[in-house]
Amino acid sequence: KPPPPNPWVLLAGRLGASFEISLEPEVLVVEHGGSIQLKVKTTCQDPKAFGNVETSIRKQLLLAQPTEVVVKLLEVNVWNSSIIYYFNCRGERKLFTTALIVYRSLNRVTLDPVRELEVGKSHELVCRMENVAPIRNLTVILWKGGEKLHTKTFQQYSQDEPMPVQVIHRLTAQRQDNGQTVTCQAVLDLTPYGPCFNVTSEPQTLTVYEFPEDPKLEPHIYLEMGKTVNATCTVGHVFPSVAQFKLALDNRILPHSVSRDGHRATAEVSLNHSGNFSLVCTVKVGPKERWKEAIVHSY
């Protein structure tokens, strides 16, 4: 948040000083490259009183009166700067310094593409943004649907210059996360003296899978030459429930049928010569593949 009003201005009045000065706005917030108009006022009643603003930034004096001075700072292109404002009243000078808060518009927030997530495993969600200033006013929130997964603030940072930001959160996937959307929200809040930027990344839809065990296949199949036998390959607790099966006999893909629940594939096996042959069942769930091998004994 922008700093509170300068306590020294208030303190001068409490101590019964002969006059007070004040600054409007109390906190100076300006976009990098932009301009800001400020007013210095005094309670001094001396018609010869005068005041001004001292700064290395190019300025334009808009009004100079015994009770107030209006100055415009032009094309502010420094990140770490302060101004001095003062008034002289009956030979006494009051002078104060205040920081200039320079910001850059927050325009884009990106969430790295989320690959398919395995149930029970930890996966990184990575949110990125470039050229954030001032970072201490930034809050980043990672969401899953309407649930806040992680909130990160940067109040401890003192850097004024723009800097890249990366926020990482580890998500342990569950079956109920499948189809949920995740987003990254960034809020650069300069209120009440400046704007509030609220930007959200494009949503990423979570795809979750579970394939904890190898498929099951009878390890030895005995087949009389010229005859046909059914070979069945099954999977247990998989998610989503439809698995992709492939059965190959001696590197030859076999036609197969899949049960209604998607957990079992059956293929007809036949051989015209004797010997021992490899039958491999390969199953894919999400990006994960598992396989099981059986030996077909043809006699």
TrEMBL record:
<comment type="similarity">
    <text>Belongs to the immunoglobulin superfamily. ICAM family.</text>
</comment>
<protein>
    <submittedName>
        <fullName>ICAM5 protein</fullName>
    </submittedName>
</protein>
<dbReference type="GO" id="GO:0005178">
    <property type="term" value="F:integrin binding"/>
</dbReference>
<keyword id="KW-0393">Immunoglobulin domain</keyword>
<dbReference type="InterPro" id="IPR047012">
    <property type="entry name" value="ICAM_VCAM"/>
</dbReference>
<keyword id="KW-1133">Transmembrane helix</keyword>
<keyword id="KW-0472">Membrane</keyword>
<keyword id="KW-0732">Signal</keyword>
<feature type="domain" description="Intercellular adhesion molecule 1/3/5 D2">
    <location>
        <begin position="215"/>
        <end position="299"/>
    </location>
</feature>
<dbReference type="InterPro" id="IPR013783">
    <property type="entry name" value="Ig-like_fold"/>
</dbReference>
<dbReference type="InterPro" id="IPR003987">
    <property type="entry name" value="ICAM_VCAM_N"/>
</dbReference>
<feature type="domain" description="Intercellular adhesion molecule N-terminal">
    <location>
        <begin position="18"/>
        <end position="105"/>
    </location>
</feature>
<keyword id="KW-1015">Disulfide bond</keyword>
<dbReference type="InterPro" id="IPR013768">
    <property type="entry name" value="ICAM_N"/>
</dbReference>
<dbReference type="InterPro" id="IPR048679">
    <property type="entry name" value="ICAM1_3_5_D2"/>
</dbReference>
<dbReference type="InterPro" id="IPR036179">
    <property type="entry name" value="Ig-like_dom_sf"/>
</dbReference>
<dbReference type="Pfam" id="PF03921">
    <property type="entry name" value="ICAM_N"/>
</dbReference>
<keyword id="KW-0325">Glycoprotein</keyword>
<dbReference type="GO" id="GO:0098609">
    <property type="term" value="P:cell-cell adhesion"/>
</dbReference>
<dbReference type="GO" id="GO:0005886">
    <property type="term" value="C:plasma membrane"/>
</dbReference>
<keyword id="KW-0130">Cell adhesion</keyword>
<dbReference type="Pfam" id="PF21146">
    <property type="entry name" value="ICAM1_3_5_D2"/>
</dbReference>
<keyword id="KW-0677">Repeat</keyword>
<keyword id="KW-0812">Transmembrane</keyword>
